Amino acid sequence: MTRVESMTFAFQHAHVLRALATAVEFDPHLHSTYSVVVVTNGSADIRSGRWSRTVHAGEVFFFNPFEVHAGSGAGGSARYHVLYPSDAFLDSCLGASPPGEDRTVRTDVLPRSRTARELVDALSAPVVEHASVEEALRRVVQECTFAVEPVAATPASVAQAVCRRLRRGGTGSTRTADLARELGVHPSHLVRSFTTAIGIPPQTYVRQLRVARARELICAGFALDDVAQMANFSDQPHLTREFKKVFGVPPGALSRSVPAR
Description:
This protein has helices at residues 87-94, 114-124, 130-143, 158-168, 176-183, 187-198, 202-219, 224-230, 236-247, 252-255, and strands at 3-13, 16-29, 35-41, 43-48, 52-56, 60-63, 69-73, 78-85, 101-105, 109-110, 146-150. By secondary structure, the chain is of the alpha+beta class.
């Protein structure tokens, strides 16, 4: 179960959301943006389909958009910052990806290098200066290894086909039985294949995509009751329950940090 002692949010600018948290455990979850995580106190055991290891204070680690990951404090809670840079920020650091190609980060953990230290110091300053954090983040991103590959015309697996279908959105049903019928497979096969490949069941994935959409809408300044409706939650309490499963705090913690427009 996700157990967060505290989490606050702040905006670097329109293209970078920043969070500061102290957490004991996070269940498997995803975000729709890149995640750059900076550990400032303690250690954590991190797991994803791409990599798993223990990270320590002073290290920086990375997840791609929609990469399911989980973590737990190694011997207690860990304190860390998370930076969620947009594609536009990545483009400003690395140049735009060609149309029809995906950019994925291959680096898992950046050790206690000079670049990592600069980002840790910028985030740990008594008064956090947005310009210093942004410049340090830019150097960290540029030190990472990325792969740019064409998007396959035909998904290579049932799980990839479901992910592509769900992220595309639209008006089609997201019920497991309907997704299985659409792909021509048995529902139980879809659930097994998807959970093994992605790390969470398909209906959990659906709900977390809605939370990701809710985060975008909150950051855009929409009221929480409107966000719940626009992100296809049954009501605001439903949004709150699902948001807390991903972030450990209610969506109001994010909405209160959104600058007035």
